[in-house]
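Technical note accompanying the year-one report. For the benefit of new consortium partners, we illustrate the data format agreed upon in the data management plan: each record pairs a sequence with a structure-token string. No post-processing was applied to the example shown here.
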Amino acid sequence: MSKDTLMFEGFKDGQMDKKQALLDVYNALTDRGYNAIDQIVGYLTSGDPSYITSHNNARSIILRLDRDELLEQILKCYLGIEK
């Protein structure tokens, strides 16, 4: 058995699945009884993290995502445009 200390590296920009992150945030907001879509839209348009609950680390998760990239991907998905 090795006695070396292993270092944990947190999320890197390309590692986090944006869809799963949004689903986690959505679920945390729903768990707390919020209208999750309204809260996420409020955050995305204003940048104010107080729209997102800290329940289940949702605020921490959403702050790791770039809002502009997220909005771009959402718009492309809505319009059916491939990358």
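Partners are asked to follow this layout when depositing records. Residues 7-15 have pLDDT under 50 and may be disordered.
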